[in-house]
Amino acid sequence: MCGITGFVGGTPHAEDALRLARMNAVITHRGPDDAGGYLSGVGEFDPDRAPVVPVEARGGGAAAALGMRRLSIIDLSTGHQPIANEDRTAWIVFNGEVYNFAELRAELAPRGHRFQTKTDTEALLHAYEEHGPACLDRFRGMFGLAIWDERRERLLLARDQTGIKPIFYTQVGDRLVFASEIKALLQYPGVKRELDPESLFHFLTYLYVPPPATMFAGIRQLPPGHRLVWERGVIDVAEYWRGPAAWVDPAAEAPPTDPADLWDVLRESVEAHLMSDVPLGAFLSGGIDSSAIVALMAEAMDRPVRTFSIGFRGAGMYDESPYARAMADHVRADHTEFHVDSSAVHDVPRILRHLDEPMADASVIPNYHVARLAREHVTVVLTGIGGDELFGGYRRYFGDDLARRWERIPAALRRDVLLPAVRALPSGGATPFQNRVRLVEKFLAPLDSPPEQRYLAWNSHFNDALKRELFCRDLNGQRPSYELFLPLFARAKHRPFADRAMYVDLKTYLPGDPLMLADRLTMAHSLEARVPFLDVKVMDYAARLPVATKLRGQGTKLALREAVRGRIPEALIHRPKQGFGTPIDLWLKHELAGLPDALLSTEVVSARGLFHPAGVRRLVEQQRGGRRDVSQHLWALLMLELWQRAYLDHDYSARTDLTFADLDVAL
Q1: Among 195, 572, 618, 640, which residue carries the largest CB count within 10 Å?
Q2: Where does the pLDDT of residue 36 fall: very low under 50, low under 70, confident under 90, or very high at 90 and above?
Q3: CB of 265 within 8 A of CB of 296?
Q4: Which of 1, 2, 207, 516 is catalytic?
Q5: Residue 2 designated active-site
Q6: What is the C-alpha separation between 90 and 106, in angstroms, rounded?
Q7: How far apart are CA 81 and CA 79, in angstroms?
Q8: How far apart are CA 541 and CA 258, in angstroms?
């Protein structure tokens, strides 16, 4: 696991090595074990001792630089990067793991490729030599990679199929600059720190910025399953993986899979993901997905599984720690848990510094702490991310069917009796009843819209009416957020609606939220997170499962629940989905009640010029009054303000000890 940096284009500059060194230094957390660099006309060099290289010493051709920080996981002694081919005309830096690299080596060696290391990285470079950019179709794993081909003056950037690992890039003059994290780009001279207004609009809809945009104007992210080729100044971005064939190819002839085979499919993936030369463990929430991964690890390992979980004392439905303990006891795991309270909010500035963009999912706080806890014991963790999107874990997948039933009720009864009755119910608070009221309200709001649009509305947070109330700028002509994802629905139009929804979530929400958090917050602690559910073989299998084997009645993840029967405690199989939530609503009413007044005051909001102060104040008062829970909306605005202070008002991207005091906030 690593972080990568680099740039290409234009003519050499004497300070190119120093520029790369500065980019590399701010992502040391991604790879504290080693550093490496490559500079065209110079070859390999140590970025921690970066030289000033006279331009005349570098020869002709396009300028190119590659950098890396390494967290040693596999082949600890010979895995140093960058790695070159036999004649040193092609170079690679690589972030991630490719689990089928032994098979790749076995295919390539008979064709004359010679290997100097035992790493997966070297196999990828030789696969590129053999197949060009088409090599990406052969990789099974998670990766963000950069390959510089000196002969062709070609750079290949690529991101894995589902976006487990990130790649960001920007253009500065005639140069393309890229890195695993935005903070590295900000170290390059001329990269601007400006907010993108359109990204802000979509951020309020989804609580993350959908690719290829970022919250920074001019900085892009390579979307999942995409590659970028820069060749002699020309940039071409293309998608190499559209999704599992059963979901995106109407002509796919693969027969439906047998749910009885699910455990074997998952076992093979987990065993592949156990490849490591350092200690590994698992995140355990007590839900079905993480419990299944832990059960499979226990079957495959000859020692107790190390498991880690987070709890919230006195936080009612948010605390899953008893379920995690039950699962750990079931497999005799070596279990460690940590309990978080509102004091954990003091870590938010450091968390924001690792995220680089505002992120309104409050689970960043427990994710940050569970990663820190795990890193005290292991270097690699397996997670259950992806099970919901592949096997039907969200209740919203029933939405289309429920909407049709609702439409059978006479319109007058719906409009004049049922809707007003639901809206009169109190939805503030953290009881199961209040949570259900919020879900029903959200379900009912967009029912008059087309199916695709209402599904995306169920996945949204600030609706269009609220955004019009908030934004100072005229939103006429603004592209609605739901339009970003309509082409993905169209790709899977031959499938039942629930399959289409799962496919869209796999391509949008999953990389935008859970995977983004998993990468940044584990890497913040130099911890590698792996996701066996997102193995290409598991995804292909899941996509070919009939919908009825996943969803029926009000039952979710039926095939997975059946597969884990007898392997995890029965009580965990039948418990409803809880999610990795955070009691922000409770904290904002009590310990953090003063935070909105400090960060969202009329003076602060007016000075920013983004939102109408009166609209923001209404949200603050709604939360304070308690009848409506708008804590998620407030949290999004709070994170946005803190991000602006850290990244726009100042450049704190290189600060490792960022505090609220640095951001002019007194808690």
Answers
A1: 640
A2: very high
A3: no
A4: 2
A5: yes
A6: 20
A7: 6
A8: 9
